[in-house]
Amino acid sequence: MSQVPGTASSKVKMSPRKAEKCVMDLIDLFHKYTSPDDTVNKEGLQEMLKEYFPHFLRACDKMGKDYLSGVFEDNDKNHDKKIQFSEFLSVLGSIATDYHNHSHGAELCAGDDE
């Protein structure tokens, strides 16, 4: 069991809530692909997306969209050729938004063509 941040006593140990566990899992996923400077390069990001979001990428392919070709450039906001954690969250936010829209009947990967 891990200690939950913000608990009143450092002696109190609780299991993280489901949402907290999801956040910790995202951090672990990011760290699985980071270099020592805590960033992910283009190849690492593409490898991660292929491994962890294959259904999404297949849906994009069926829609005729090459999602992987622009995802890095679209999310490397400071143009340093590296994806920092906040930029990684932007990538996941776009994918999560698409899945949310899919839950309301939209085709998967039918989002904007920005």
Automatic annotation (TrEMBL):
Provide any one GO MF term from the record: calcium-dependent protein binding
Pfam families to which the protein is assigned, alphabetical: S_100
Q: Which GO terms describe its biological process?
A: endothelial cell migration
Residue span, EF-hand domain: 63-98
Q: Does the keyword Glycoprotein apply?
A: no
Could you list this entry's UniProt keywords, alphabetically sorted.
Calcium, Metal-binding
InterPro entries per record = EF-hand-dom_pair, EF_Hand_1_Ca_BS, EF_hand_dom, S-100_dom, S100_Ca-bd_sub
Which PROSITE patterns does the record associate with it?
Answer: EF_HAND_1 (PS00018), EF_HAND_2 (PS50222)
A single Gene Ontology CC term: extracellular exosome
Q: Does the keyword Phosphoprotein apply?
A: no
Superkingdom: Eukaryota
Protein known as? EF-hand domain-containing protein
What organism is the protein native to?
A: Rhinolophus ferrumequinum
Native organism taxonomy: Eukaryota, Metazoa, Chordata, Craniata, Vertebrata
GN (gene name): LOC117015138
